[in-house]
Amino acid sequence: MAAITVEKDVYEGTTPKLSFTIFDNGVAYNLTGATVTFGLKATLSDAAYIVNRACTLDADPTTGKCSITLTAIETGTEGAYVAEIKVVSGTSVIIPVQFTLNINDSVLG
Q1: CATH classification number, 2-104, choose in 3.40.140.10, 3.30.420.40, 2.60.40.3350, 1.20.120.530
Q2: Fewer Cβ within 10 Å of end Cβ, the chain: N or C?
Q3: Cβ distance 50 to 42 under 8 Å?
Q4: pTM of the model
Q5: Minimal CA–CA distance to 21: which of 6, 8, 34?
Q6: Segments of 31-78 assigned E as strands
């Protein structure tokens, strides 16, 4: 249900902007009135989230586009993390995608 555009490489201690486009049957999902949340955990079974906050919707929510900028603290430890996008629209809760976000060690340390 979602197409994801993520920076090619996310590096430890940086502040990357992650951009997402939510689709429903190949058509941009109208996010008017919806809340889109980005979650990030070390593992799927973890109870605690490293990140669990709302994304910023595009100026035109009918495009289905949203983004979130991670902080240097949130990207502070390298590894492969479980990420998820959740859309809440009215009484509907949609989790269109889960994916792995790799945070790589900084080349210059």
Answers
A1: 2.60.40.3350
A2: C
A3: yes
A4: 0.86
A5: 6
A6: 35-41, 51-54, 56-57, 65-69
